[in-house]
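User: Endoglucanase. Structure?
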Amino acid sequence: MSSVAVNQVGHLPSGPKRATLVTDATGPLPWELADSAGRIVANGTTDPRGIDISSQQNVHTIDFGEHRQTGAGFTLTADGATSRPFTIAPGLYDTLRADALKFFYCQRSGIEIRDDLRPGYGRPAGHLGDRDVPCAPDAGDYRLDVRGGWYDAGDQGKYVVNGGITVWQLLHAFEHRGGLDELTLDLPESGNGIPDLLNEVRWELDFLLRMQAPSGLVHHKMHDREWTGLPTLPHLNPQPRELRPVSTAATLNLAAVAAQGARIFRKYDAGYAERLLAAARTAYTAAETNPIRYAPVEDTVGGGPYNDDDVRDEFYWAAAELFLTTGEHRYADAVLSSPLHTEDVFGPYAFDWAATAAAARLALALTPSELPGLTGVRASVLAGADRYLTLQQAHPYAIAYAPPGNRWDWGSNSMVLNNLMVLAVAHDLTGETRYRDGVLEGLDYILGRNALNLSYVTGYGTDFAKNQHSRWYAHQLDPTLPHPPNGTLAGGPNSGLQDEVAQARLTGRVGQFCYIDDIHSWSTNELTINWNAPLAWIAAFAAELG
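Assistant: Predicted structure:
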């Protein structure tokens, strides 16, 4: 059976425009592009691509990039199949940029979510008791005020390493993407003289500061003592909360993002910037003194472990951000002496919460500094971008991601987007159109040009994910509760199939088909702060182009 997979949101007039046809035919086929009135406005023949490894489908590419007429309701037809409708317009990604960032307010802990600001998503403040949380027996004999922050994912835990990479990516977007200093996100703090994106990020930064123990080390996470069921709204969660042990990784996350935050907040709140930098320095020194305090692998009751027993990348990342903020030789020496500084850090996926060396490299490449050898740093980013671009150009669905053995990772959608971020930074460095086009075409996959003909972003496209794993966006289980808000990214195909729903319904499937839009499929369909962050970053890049 034939089908035409397209970006169901659409395309910028001057950007690439391609679709993927699934068909049994091996030779070229005619295609037609119709406008909303059914008039044929372009036509051509398909480019056969053979069997796509990631889906095991026989596919062709349709290229209609020469068509630049704007409008809504365009459709492509080939081999008897017609695509979902889509738009061609210059401001196409403005709303996605805003919605992907508005997601974070709904994830806030410790504050009422106002229904006038997020109609249909209002709820009482959750976990006000986080103002006084005890350490677990293996974590210490004191209590901390760790209120605020964002709920990490579908559960109601708060994890420093996931919060850290999320804050870093949002602050990196603020620093290097245009228009975010003026973007209104409809927050309680809107109009206070500080850009809304910084207002939102500060909610998490304040929590990260509170997770710093008297020793200067930082607690890895805090969450419920036992797992809660679905659905459970945050303010109705009966579980007691605990601080889990400190870790070197968490400590370096705070060092990195507090230093980065200090650099960016200086313009808006000098006192807060000083506080952030002091915390960053303290954390970095504490990590140097305690370089192998690893989060335990088995700590999985009530929250995910987020274990990581290689923190060379976190040391490199924290040193990079401290250097970029202070310019001090101490941190420059740490950057230059790190073995990661000259290694190829752009693997099958560029970075995530556990692999942060590429984050350091991207920050060093774009943020002005006097670091020796910047030409080599930037060349390494371009080499990584070229690798991802080569992967994308060879892929019939234009995916800049090819995991070893076609074993798709947990949260693969975020990995696709993080790889696209490398292409975007390459475009920033060179201005070359091929990198820009790679980002835009890579976004097509997320928004519907995939084997499932599904947009992975709630509210975007004709057919989209809307039952992501969550304890309070749980409409699938309780019709009185909402679906996730528009602009929420689903995790995406995951060959591991760790949950029972995925195992029962997806076992034996290949690559792209290892996904199901079911609230119980936490291994393929969760929502998380660190998956929405790259969506927001890439949407900001696309909106800037538009």
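The first strand starts at residue 3 and ends at 5. The mean pLDDT is 98.
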